Amino acid sequence: MRVLSTMALVFVSLLFVPDVALAAEASVGWGLGIGAGLAIGLVGLGCGIGQGLAGFGAVQGIARNPGAAGQIQTPMVIALALIESISLYGLVVAILLIGEL
User: Fold this and answer.
1) pLDDT reported for residue 7
2) CA 22, 8, 94 angle in degrees (round to 5)?
3) Is there a domain that residue 72 lies in?
4) Which of 10, 65, 68, 80 has the most CB atoms lying inside 10 A of its own CB?
C-alpha cells in the first residue's frame, strides 16, 4: 500500500510540474496526450475486467445448469456487446483528444 501511495504522489506531482515550468500553451498539449492515454488505457482495463466477469458468470451458470446454456448465452453476448461499446467510446474520446493536440 505504501508503494502505491508513493507512486500516486509522484504521478500527481509530475502532472503539475510542467504547468509551472512551461508556458500554458505547451502544457495543454502534454496534458491532452496524458488524458488520451489514460482514456484508452483505463477504458481498456475496465472493459477487460467487465468482460471477464461476464464470461465467468455465464460459464459458472452453465456449469451449474447445463440445460440453460441457450438462455444464458444470448444475454451474455448482448452484455459483451454493450461492454465493448464502452471501449469504443473511450477510443473516440482518445482520438478527439489527440485531434486537439
Assistant:
1) 66
2) 65
3) yes
4) 80
Output the CA angle 84-52-6, nearest 5 degrees: 95
Q: Is 61 exposed, middle or buried (0-12, 13-18, 19+ CB in 10 A)?
A: middle
Q: What is the pLDDT of residue 19?
A: 52
Please tell me the distance from the alpha carbon of residue 74 to that of residue 10, in angstroms, as a whole number: 45
Q: pLDDT digit string (tens) for 33-91?
A: 888 888 888 899 999 999 999 999 999 999 999 999 999 999 999 999 999 999 899 88
Whether 84 maps to a domain, the answer reads yes
Residue 10: CB atoms within 10 Å = 10
What CA–CA distance (Å, rounded) separates 55 from 59? Answer: 6
Whether 75 contacts 86, CB under 8 Å: no
- What's the structural domain count of the chain? 1
pTM: 0.65
Instruction: Give the pLDDT confidence score for residue 36 in this predicted structure.
Output: 82
